[in-house]
Every structure is written in structure tokens, then in C-alpha cells.
Amino acid sequence: MTEGRGLHPRARVEDYTSKGWWSDETADQVFRDQVQARGDALAVVDPANRAALLGTEPRRLTWNELDHEVTFLAARLLDLGLGRGDVLGVQLPNTIELVEVYLAAWSLGIVVSPLPMQYREREVVGMATQAEFAAFVTTYAFGDRHPAADALAARDRIPSLPTVVGFGLPGEAPEDMPAGVVHLVPAAASEDDTARVAAYRESDPNDPNDCLTICWTSGTESEPKGVPRCHYDWLAISWATVDAPRVTADDVLLNPFPMVNMAGINGMFLPWLRTGGVLVQHHPFDLPTFLAQIAQERVTYTVAPPALLWMLLHDEALLSKVDLSSLTRIGSGSVPLQPAMVRGWQERGIPVINFFGSNEGIGLLSSFEDFPDPDERAQYFPRYGAPGVHWSSRVSEWMSVKLVDVVTGEEITEPGRSGELHITGPTVFAGYLHADRRPSPFDDEGYLKTGDLFEIAGDRGQFLHYLDRAKDLVIRGGMNIAPAELEGLIGAHPAVADVAVIGDPDEVLGERVAAVVTLKPGTTLTLEELVAFLKEQKIASFKLPERLEVRDELPRNPVGKILKRALRRTDEPTTTGAPA
Questions:
Q1: pTM of structure
Q2: Of 100, 26, 84, 103, which Cα lies nearest the Cα of 200?
Q3: What letters, b where the CB count within 10 A reaches 16 and e where it falls short, cover 47-66?
Q4: Which domains, and CATH codes, for the chain?
Q5: In this model, does residue 514 exceed pLDDT 90?
Q6: 3-state SS assignment for residue 529
Q7: Nearest to 577 by CA among 528, 533, 534
Q8: DSSP string of 51-103?
Q9: Per-residue pLDDT tens for 287-312?
């Protein structure tokens, strides 16, 4: 937090508002404006496979119906004693209920801290303790798991947490619902609910500098970092993902990314909220369901991992059986796009928009308007502030970027030279949770040091060309995995002498986790034995290694650091070995 109320210092607020980059709007007010404007138009649709996932049938709500249920939930949050500044932990799949939790909490000034469904006790306890969850909202059943019961069992390890809520269940609480879980079912607000919530908002209105979310980024550290963001910076960066794909109220958006970080929240949720179209939820990712939803809901815009788009493009048999005629564009990113993939989809009449973002507030998007050449769109991002160059998104006028030599600290202005991207502007967060315990992520001029390496490119120096991650993050299916955490756990195995965790290329997920180890004399270790050992630590299943390689020694540089680049595979991506 900074001086006074809110996340950003007052001088920054005055500067950015005077320039028109920030306004007095709040996310909850944007929602109420859409309700007033859209009324009985369709607003949000549940995942088509909800019955198999949660045991309840999918629903479809208009803006008015959504508003009534949001108000009902807000009243229940007040009943639980929650209010401004309290942190609400949320672990829900992409459903209507997840949308309602965000909007209900925000209407009361409650901070939402969303966690992926894959997270288990280890991750939940760690993040809940850091952020001091005042309550935790989850679902009773998720496939064969029982997240509400799991959260209740871990509650004694979370000092701040008195309440676990099971939200979105069938009408009556299941007989085996653990005692102590608060059972809530979506319903329309009563007159009393509406009056109480309105009175609360009037007595203590939201400020745009109030914290909205605490999302989590793994980085390369063992302990995840909390990323607080407020109305100001969320609503500013939402224009990047509205402008680049030209989202309007006529769009039907299919959201396959978990609404837990920048990809799901700013890729789909906020553009929907900004424009008032239709949001179709999807979870967990299932290709047949995903393709069927595009056809059935007449989806006009969606996002998908690059590897999936590449795979689809080369599966003529599958493409011939599906109806993608409603799609007008697709968003993708997180790794460099293949020019042939971007070109191939454009030849089918569906341009791919290249995204590069982060929870901290990076927002580089290459639109088909600014980059009509698909090869350039795949390889380059706009270099905001390049002399004599205009970009179509309003965000480009607000942001300043520079490249900095990671050795000398010198700013790089010539093409073809690698440097770390530093960025500043109204989309960037104010700082990490418990900032006093961490090194500052900002340089001496206040620019965010992103840890990502780029070079200047283009005949006018108008492009940024992504080179590599400066850190060793493994990204599996859009989920960030910190190697340091896994290396610490694997290193505790009695047979392991040394370990390095890397990412193997994968056609669908982008990367899968691989562990390269050396063993202690006289010991052996199999992948199955290692996975069983890690499962005992109660970590998320997506973090489990899917390949184990045993070596006599690990390659190191002269100062002893493991050379992970020498360990990474350079062969073709694989599709085998997904963890349970």
C-alpha cells in the first residue's frame, strides 16, 4: 500500500488523471452501467460440460438476472461480516458463479484473490496466509475432488480464515457437506438485499485506487508473489484487450482461460464487462467441448494457446467436421508465435492477434490492423513511443518502454541488441504484496523491470522482437510453474543429489515439466517413484514432472550455476505423459 487510501501514490493519481489515462470510473460502476444499457440481453453462459464437472446443469443469464444474483451474493457477503479491504480467497472454475463473486465483492470494496482449481493444500495455505484471507469461496465438488472440504481441513493453518463458503451447489446442501462450510446457492436478490447493498455502497463508495484483486505470479522464486491491482490499472489495461481485437457489444466471447490472472481476467472478462457482449465460460479445457461451443453459441472471438492453434491448423480431418464460420479473430500468445501458423489462420479468414502480458501490467498486443502482414504480427510487438509511428490502441499513447542492457545498465536505442524490457504507464501495478520484504521490481526512473529480453527491430525501429525469458519459468497450459519451488521439493527426495527443473516442448500445452537429476551413490529413482513422493507434498497436479532424466552430473558455468539451456530438449514437441 502507499500513502493514504489505495495502491498508487497521490502524485501518480493526479498525474495520470490529469492526462486522461485514469478516470473516476470503477469496475462495479461499469457493470451497473451495462445492466442499465443491456437489461434483458443475454450476458453470460455456463460451460457446456458443467453437469459432468459440478453436478449441476448449465445456465444462461441476462444482464438483469445477473445483476439480481450479484446483489443477492453481495448481501450474503455482508451477512458474513465482510467489507471494504477484506480479502476473499476464491477457487472456482469458469462458471457464472465466478463472475458473480467478482462483481459482488467489488461492489462492496472486497478484494478478490483468485486461485486456480489445480491448487491443493500447499498452495492454498501459502497464499491465504500471505494475503490474510478473511473468507474462502469454493465449490463442494469438482470432478472427483471436494475443494470445500479440503479448504476446511486446512483452515487451522490459516490464522485469518474463519469462513469457508460452498457456492453454486444444488438447492440443498449435500448430506456429506462438512459441518462448518457455509452453503450458498445463487438466487435473485430480495428487496431487503437490494436496499442493504445500496445503502452500504452509498455510505462507503468505492475509490478507483482501491485494490480489486490480488493475483499470484510464480516467477522463479519458491514463494509466489501477490500482485495487487486496483480499478485504475485494471480498467486502463482493459483498453488494450478491447482495442486490439476491436471487441464490441455484438461480440460473443468464449473464455477458455481460468479467470485467475491477466490472461483470463484481462483477456476475456474485462473486455466483456467493458463492451456488454456475451461471455461464454469454458472449463476445464476440452477440445471437443470448445469447438462445439464455438458452433452452438456462434462465438465471434476467443483466445487459445499457440500450440493448439498450430495443431488444429494441421488437422484437416477435424477442421472439416467443425463449424468455425462465426469466428472473426483469435487471440494468442505467451510464447513466440510461428509465422506459418498465423499466416495459415489468416488464409482461412481468421486473423490471430499476438498477446504479450503479465500480472504486473505489461500489455503488448499486435493487432491485425497495425500488423496486416501475418509474419510480422507473429514475430513483433509495437514499440510504444517509437518516433513517427502511430498505433491504433489508445494504450500505445500512454505507455513508455525502454530496453536496458542487463550487464551495463545502459539504455539500448539501436536495433539488434538484446536488453531487458522496462515499462511504465497507467497499466502497471503499484508493487507486490508485502513490498517491504522483496526487492523492488522498479528501476530508478519508476519503470517496471519485466525480466523479459527483447531487441528493437523494423525499418524505423518501430518493433520489439521477443527473444527469451530472462528467468526460467515453465509455462504449462497457461499455468506458471516456478522451477525453484519444485527443485526444493525434489531435492528433498532421499535418492536425489542434484536437480534442475526445465520445460519440455509440447504441442498442446506449450511445455511440460521435466526433472533432470543426479543421484546419490547406490540409489535408483523412477518417474513413478518421484511423482508419488511429490504427491505426498500435496502440490498441484500440473506441477508434477512428466519426464525424469538421470545424469552423472549437471552442466554448470564457471560460477557454479546450472546451465539449463544445455539441458533443454531441442527435438520436436511431444504430447505424451500428462499427469493425473
A1: 0.85
A2: 84
A3: bbbbeebbebebbebbbebb
A4: 27-40+63-206 (3.40.50.980), 262-469 (3.40.50.12780), 474-566 (3.30.300.30)
A5: yes
A6: helix
A7: 528
A8: HHHHSS---EEEHHHHHHHHHHHHHHHHHTT--TT-EEEEE--SSHHHHHHHH
A9: 999 999 999 999 999 999 887 898 89
